[in-house]
Amino acid sequence: MQPANAIADRRPIAATNLVALYAATMLLSATLLFAVQPMFTKMVLPMLGGSPAVWNTAMMFFQTMLLAGYAYAHLTSRLLAWRHQAALHVTLLLLAFAALPIMPAAGWEPPTGGFQVFWLTGLFAASIGLPFFIVSANAPMLQRWFAASGHPSAADPYFLYGASNLGSIVALLAYPTVIQPILGLNGQSLAWTMGYAGLVVLIGLCAFAIRRQAQPAQMTPTRGHGDVAAPSSWRVRLQWIVFALVPSSLMLGVTTHISTDVAAVPLLWILPLTLYLLSFVVVFSRRPVLKHEWMVAALPYLAILIVLNLLGIGKDWLYSLGLHLTAFFVCAMVCHGELVKRRPAAASLTEFYLFMSVGGMLGGVFNALLAPLLFSAVIEYPIALIAVCMLRPQPAADGRHWRNDLVLPALLLAVLALPSLLPDFRMPDIGKAGNFAFLVGISLVVFSFKERSVRFGLGLAAAMLGITALTQHDEILAHERSFFGVHRVQSYADGRINLLLHGTTIHGAQYTDPAKRRTHLTYYHHAGPFGQLFDAYAGRPQTQRTAVVGLGAGALACYRTPGQDWTFYEIDPVVVGMARDSGLFHYLGDCAKDSPIVMGDARLSLRDAPAHRYGIIFLDAFSSDAIPIHLMTREALQSYLAKLADDGIVVFHISNRYLDLAPVLAGLAKDAGLAGRHQRYIPAAELTENRKSVPAELVVLSREDRTLAPLDESGKWNRLDSIPPAKPWTDDYSNIIGAIK
């Protein structure tokens, strides 16, 4: 028989081991959960043109499945004895092996109409629904098991949620920096399957460990000190939902905004999601390093700076990026800090997470489904920011002045907006200094509302609406939104030029003067590489049949000459509508009225074209500032070559502010045994006025080097094999980090 003190000495060790086991299991579970998100999203990107909306739709699906997993954890905790719940969970974990390894379900062809969101959601459900559902249930279920373990920390198991979110952050940061550059998608899927097998073992150990330590009477979680009582009111549950919904929507809104209206930097979507998860790690820790009251105090200052930035002050992209991300993190900290203040005792833990997931899912649904239908711009972002400000806890809840919370913002809106209703009103030109002083003055008025949360939030809304109405002019000719992005046509250079933009990226321009309408502008200027190429191949057989992937404003169409057969491939119906609208652009109407436009992703649409049909295939498709990755892989290149005449050329337009894609194409050309030429064009100073010509970069590939001889005559093209090649990208492998300039 062992001495009692020897048994007592081992209890801290056993307790430490139990915490380590549960923390490691939750960390691995969250790592797998968040590794599968970018992995599977990358698998399906080739089907939908690399659209940023694919990520928003994916997030909506993942949040919905997270809700389903949390509901399963909550219901089984309520309805089943502990042993039965553990047995059911392990059984489902084993059944999920039938859906592994992860890959897109067979037989799913993307639609060419307007149902991409529902199609993509169905594909996700059919492909990874079961494993994602069962893994998503682990966080609340494991915390519930730990709460029933009799461990000294069992009364407050919420600290384990920090380990879960830490695992999520590890997966998100490791995916683009470590996993994707080293492993192809097949390797990633295999590694995920192996990690899943390890997770099943760890969950079994978790169940076994507390089965040994806990007595049957201990299987009901104990109540912690300082926790909110288990709620019986729907008011508390509604607060859980709202404080989870708003930062979820804000995360997606700020991601869309910074990746389109600030900078189309690769992998930018990782930063908001990482900060979102980091806020959970901080607020659910036992000793938060950032105090809640600090975040609450900082919010009004950052909100004012965001509004000023949205209205045009401080447009430097690095400043804007840092400001929007900092403000988002503070907003998430405020909302999630309020959640922690309202967390229930451990007995209601699964219910708490269930309603949190309802809020997260609703935020995703609002941004992915409703916002594109309701708004032509990314209005959901400022809406969520204003909602956070209105939810901010205020120093004193004095209800006597609630009418002023409505009246004062309404007066501000009236003062700002009413002049714009007058006939022929136009804001006087007060110069940059005057505009700055005006905006700062309005901001100070709004800032004076900060002690009243609702008044402050409504004041921000009034300032944004009023100033926009006061200063709006006729520069924006069209503004439309589709699954593939937000597009606008803007009048430029005193109405002499119309620009087609996606966020901050120009995708085409045209003179409004009928005498100049066929003059090529921006990337397509006659002095640039496009003009040089058409001059070099003028009258040659390659130009008789041409395929153009990516329509834009239709500028390339006016390089077509009578008798030539051109076909355009475009995935976005909004772009087609703008290019065909004679009130906006005339390239198609003037130069290629009868040329067909094939809708859908080009890699899929080109399959229907006859073999070796085209003498030239232009890859001029862009998702914001970059050519979609799936159009630059080994498999994509082989599909182009199958449709290319023996003496044909493939032209890649790779102009980009942030990526150097020439080494990628050099690697693909070397891998396929192709000849290539490359030009990085910088226009002469006299051509840069009013964006007549802008820097452009092209790569031209062909089967035989002699096919490219016409380009060599100008002396402006370099051999592609003079560029050190990168490892060839494939549908299975790509390395965005390695391509960043």
Descriptive overview:
With 741 residues, the protein is α/β, with parallel strands linked by helices. The chain folds into three domains: 11-216, Growth Hormone, Chain: A (Up-down Bundle); 402-473; 485-739, 3-Layer(aba) Sandwich (Rossmann fold), CATH 3.40.50. The chain contains 24 helices and twelve strands. An eight-stranded mixed beta sheet has the order 7-6-5-8-9-11-10-12, with helices on both faces. It has a four-stranded antiparallel beta sheet with strand order 1-2-3-4, covered by helices on one side. The longest helix is centred in the first third of the chain and has 41 residues, at 4-44. The chain is globular, with a radius of gyration of 29 Å. The model is unreliable at 1-13 and 214-231 (pLDDT under 50).
Quick rundown:
With 741 residues, the protein is an alpha/beta fold. The protein contains 24 helices and 12 strands.
Helix content: 40-55%
Query: Which fold does the CATH topology of the largest domain refer to?
Result: Rossmann fold
How would you describe the shape? Answer: globular
- Indicate the proportion of strand residues: 5-15%
DSSP E strands, number: 12
Low-confidence stretches: 1-13, 214-231
Order of the strands making up the biggest sheet: 7-6-5-8-9-11-10-12
Report the sheet with the most strands, covering strand number, pairing sense and barrel closure. Answer: 8 strands, mixed
Topology:
Layout: H1 4-44, H2 52-79, H3 82-95, H4 116-136, H5 138-147, H6 159-182, H7 185-213, H8 234-262, H9 270-283, H10 292-310, H11 317-341, H12 349-374, H13 380-391, H14 402-417, H15 431-447, H16 453-471, E1 476-482, E2 485-492, E3 497-502, E4 505-511, H17 529-536, E5 545-549, E6 565-570, H18 573-580, H19 587-591, E7 597-599, H20 602-605, E8 614-619, H21 634-642, E9 644-653, H22 662-672, E10 675-681, E11 696-702, H23 709-712, E12 718-719, H24 736-739
Parallel strand pairs: 5-6, 5-8, 6-7, 8-9
Antiparallel strand pairs: 1-2, 2-3, 3-4, 9-11, 10-11, 10-12
Helix pairs in contact: 1-4, 1-5, 1-6, 1-7, 2-4, 2-5, 2-12, 3-7, 6-9, 8-9, 8-11, 8-12, 8-13, 9-11, 10-11, 10-13, 10-15, 10-16, 11-13, 13-16, 14-16, 15-16
